Amino acid sequence: MNWQLIRLDEVPASPWRNGGGVTRELLAWPEAADWTCRLSVAEVTQDGPFSRFDGVQRCFAVLDGAGVRLGLNGQCFDLDRHSAPFAFDGAVPIDCQLLGGPTRDFNLMVRQPLGPALMRRVAGHWSTTLENSKLIAMYSITTGAEARFGSKITALPAGCLAWQLVPAGAEVGLSAAEALWMEVPL
User: Fold this and answer.
1) Which pLDDT tens digit goes with each residue over 114-160?
2) N or C terminus: fewer CB in 10 A for the chain?
3) φ, ψ dihedrals at 82, nearest 5°
4) Pairing of strands 21-29, 75-79
5) What is the predicted pLDDT for the residue at 17?
6) Which pLDDT does position 79 carry in this prediction?
7) Residue 116 pLDDT
8) For the chain, where do the domains classified as CATH 2.60.120.10 start and end?
9) DSSP bridge partners of 136
10) How many C-beta neighbours within 10 Å does residue 50 have?
11) Strand 68-72 relative to strand 75-79: parallel, antiparallel, unpaired?
12) What is the 3-state secondary structure (H, E, C) of 130-161?
């Protein structure tokens, strides 16, 4: 099995209806019109609310820029490019304030009832043996990375998403200076 590679710079940007930024959709699986899992990179240029997605679990990570302050349920969360990804219910209203200018952010959205998805930052090596079949995705942020499936290694340039459906019992891993690792239940 081979990783499917999608380079950010080859994906056209779609402007938001509210004018607050653009999104590059890297993956909408199994199909764009009726996705179960969606991975995208957003360039946020002004403060404003997040779009609501009822029945969707969201994970959010700042890739570049000074960061954001997310307000939800009366609490504020400051996130920057070193913060752990932030998971939340897509139905909850969220306000986003830029902390020092535009940001570039990664979004993972998963429709329920697949179960909770996982997003984590990787700086170094990460590997696991899957207990269940999953969609595995990796995004190389600023430098190249290496995706591993069994003994096969695939090089990823910066700004590249690698993904594939991986069966239970498979060994997968990622080596990178700065990358995101994602697991979506099937």
Assistant:
1) 678 999 999 999 999 999 999 999 999 998 899 999 999 999 999 99
2) N
3) -110, -10
4) unpaired
5) 74
6) 98
7) 84
8) 10-111, 118-185
9) 164, 183
10) 20
11) antiparallel
12) CCCCEEEEEEECCCCEEEEECCEEEEECCCEE
